[in-house]
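Morning F.,

Quick status update on the modeling queue. The single chain you submitted on Monday has been processed. Sequence for confirmation:
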Amino acid sequence: MSAPAAPRPSLPTPSPTDAEAAATATAPASASAAVTTAATRRRGLLDWRVRFAILSVIWGFSFLLIKVGTEAYAPFQVALGRVLFGALALLAVLMVRREPLPRGLRTWGHLTVAALLLNTAPFSLFAYAELSIPSSLAGICNATSPLWGMALSLVALSEDRPTRRRFAGLGLGFLGVLTVLGAWHGFSGVDAKGTAFALLASLCYPVGWIYVRRTLAGTPGSPVALTGGQLLVSTFQLALVSALFTSAPASFPLWPTLSVIALGALGTGMALQMQYGLVTEVGPTTAQMVTYFIPVIATTAGVLVLGEQLSWNTPVGAAIVLAGAALTQTRPAPGKPA
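Structure tokens below.
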């Protein structure tokens, strides 16, 4: 949902409720059609697993690409390149499908807010964070999004009632954050500002998801069209901010430039497209499991490729964070009240 959101992915990724409603609305009308659909899914089992693995790797490597991009470009410029190339990738998909962008001032108004919360702010914050913290730590901070989402949903979404298990997951997850940061050492060796930026970026995602759920649910248009519009708006937002607060790059070094292009075209454009396909094919519950692989891959990439240091509390804390996040996503059994 970094996205990432990273992706944690953005506006576009249907929530379980939205996806199930869409599946119900488009369910086959006859038993034979249902059998055909099930058979098709079984034949594509290996295929979705391969795509799941590719998606995990792409989003896991996003934090490494941000780190490399900031070696030559200002954080706002890295974020701008990310949304620009992501928008171009999705616009290409829409052109092939001959599908229009969303229409209506109200829709574009909500997309403007969604772009700020789900792209402009978190992408910029992660880029600023990685000026002073390892990419592996940024990836772990990204994994706290479900924890923030759980905490916010208790207040903002009346249908998400708390359970003892979800409360336990919330507490366990934040215990994992303290473990990653080495709280018993007084957080020594941890850049407080960079870590705060990364955690704030992770908080932006659930805030944005709640906003989208309240304002854009049922809006005409496919997720690709809505996300393409959202990334276009974010491109304009970041172009304005970059023009005001940064200077034009004096040069375009090869690896940082390729990193920013890949971050946008693959990590924001292609990855979201793959995520939509997974949600449609195997359902949102399975598709969202990609979230738990991202910090593992981000940490591995940071250590092996960038040579980042890894102490014992980082993987242990990350495992605790993921366990807590998994508990917060559990739902009551059918027939039991939340």
